[in-house]
Design brief:
The chain is an all-alpha fold. Helix content is about 85%, strand content about 0%. The chain is built from seven helices and no strands.
Length: about 180
């Protein structure tokens, strides 16, 4: 073997060793990167979960705050309107509420508008569904059921098929999930 061949062979072996070392270093770097990505993903999952829990807690707190602060208004609205079909005033109230601009019409419209606004907030996840279900669910379902004829008549009278639709959607969900 000539000196040239021996030198070439030595350079080739050294080149092979350097290439293997670089390849090993690259594999080690990729494993380290994968571990860092996994750690970042885990950290992000934990942060997302914590943020979701905090969001739920705040939404529930704000829902309870809304229910508590509007309780006097709810009581005033509910005192003006029969809340059970067995109430002796119910039939006469419903008949007179079907007359636009009557006193009972306005009382019922105020109550239904309150429930419509509340229902829209629940349906859009601004307010917490479970809290509303537990605190007001029965009243929402009962009011929707009792005054459905009035809602239908108002939809026809005003030519607004989506009138009180949010209330209807919430009441339907409350019935289906109970």
């Amino acid at each position: 073997m000539s000196t040239y061949e021996a030198g070439t062979l030595t350079v080739s072996v050294i080149s092979l060793i350097v290439s293997a070392s670089v390849m090993g270093l690259l594999i080690w770097q990729l494993r380290l990167l994968r571990r860092q990505v996994d750690d970042a993903r885990t950290s992000l999952d934990i942060s997302t979960s914590q943020a979701a829990s905090e969001n739920l807690r705040v939404r529930q707190s704000e829902t309870l705050k809304f229910v508590a602060t509007t309780l006097p208004e709810q009581n005033n609205l509910l005192n003006d309107v029969p809340q059970h079909e067995s109430d002796v005033r119910y039939t006469g109230f419903l008949e007179s509420a079907l007359v636009p601009d009557s006193d009972n019409f306005h009382k019922l419209r105020r109550l239904m508008s309150y429930y419509e606004m509340l229902s829209a907030a629940v349906n859009m996840d601004v307010f917490d569904y479970a809290i509303i279900d537990r605190t007001m669910g029965a009243r929402v379902k009962r009011t929707h059921r009792m005054y459905k004829p009035w809602v239908k008549a108002e939809r026809i009278r005003l030519n607004r098929v989506r009138l009180y639709e949010e209330l209807e959607m919430l009441a339907t969900r409350l019935v289906e999930e109970s």
